[in-house]
Amino acid sequence: MRIAILSDVHANLPALEAVLAALPSHRARDEVLRDLAGRIALGVVPVLAVLDPPLVVLAGPTGAAGGEELAEHVRAQVRRVSRWSPQVAATAVPDHPVIRGARELATADLRSRLLSRI
To answer: pTM of the predicted model, to two decimals?
Structure first.
């Protein structure tokens, strides 16, 4: 059953939105999150091998829908299949995280430049 759900997700985006909307109350939530965590870990491990970040943030609609439970499953899966043990967290920024991060960085840089001239 979970394979069918996830294969539908890859087939079209509306199915992804439907699965994510139903995930919080679905009876197979834990099973789906565990399966999804294995798939995410497969993508995270090569990044860890190159960058070795201390923190991996699961963003977007999937990270938000899975929340900290998905983050814990991903962390456990990464530890199981690799030598890395990064902290894994679900996003705390629901809308436009890249734009918000860029705005925060630009604001801090501008503030620093202005204050250094005073």
So the answer is: 0.71
